[in-house]
Task: structure prediction
Amino acid sequence: MRHSCFFAAISIALLNVSGCKMEDTGPTAFNPATNVDLTFSNFDLEDTETAPSNLEHTRFWDLYRGIQPSSSDDNANNRETANEVRDHIDRFIQATRAKDGNNYEKVRNPLDLINQVIASDQVTNFREGRKYISQRIADGQAGTYNTRGNGALIRFTDQNAVLNDTSLNEKLWIFPTLDWRYLPAGPEGSNLNEKVYRTVQYVSRSVAPEEAEAQPELVSLLAGSRFDANSFVTSGYNNPEFATADYLSRNFGSIELRQEFIGDKTDTLFIKSADKPVLDLSRYNISPSDPSPDCLRVELDYVASTVRIFYSNGEPARVNTPTSEDPDKTSANSAYCDNQEDNEAAVSWIAAGASGRQ
Result:
């Protein structure tokens, strides 16, 4: 599919903060990552008078609003389906809906919070990390900031949750990996030169079985972004070319968001291994063999302002296609939901989209 090579490249990296107390230590040679321990009044992220544009930088901001059917679409089924997609996203990012139901006014999740903290430029070690990468870009030399490589951890504590004695993973978020990686040259045969890759990993803390149900739904996340090194900045937000984020829950399987900010300009949400039905496709007279198919793909094309929904069940991503020259050859399975073409969408509608993504 058109996504594959772009997002495979991101995996190379896998080798409002006001009112917070911030503590961190100095850099080490060649890899400046060190422990960072921050205490927040709470983990909620919303727009405020002092930070009026927090939410527009959250990961689902464009998709959440953009999938709304256009004002000229009077199909109630499409509006219900868009709402079901938002309901499922809410489970992973703890979104609080705005009054119109098509947007959110607050989120509470590790990825959006650490992105805002990094952009705030208030944490010494994160600032040093980006300056180090910027200097390596200027020198034309590969460079890495990696917490895991230095045995460092990033630890966030919610003061209100501690005072209220809530569950462990409501009051403590730990990030085993924050990685910035500058690669002057990409893989041979690619045009991925002069790129910076960033990886963020969050993993919830283990608890006793009797405490499991009190924990937040999110178990872990792994997010990657790719940036143009020539426009990499050391303060504020860097604009990605591509980004991915995988979220794993306790009870609702996982979701993966892939975002393309250049070229195709699409957001693609994969809904995977949900034990309970997420989208009621029967309202379109579609009856999957399993009401909770193992592969659901919700794609928002910003250029065409179109939502397309694809599904498959029990279909592998690749199938064996042996030849006499290569008995182990495999090929993309056209029946798998990520390999289906635009005209094979089970459901589609004209969407509100997001003008900022054009």
Residues 4-60+107-240 form one domain. The chain is about 20% helix and 30% strand.
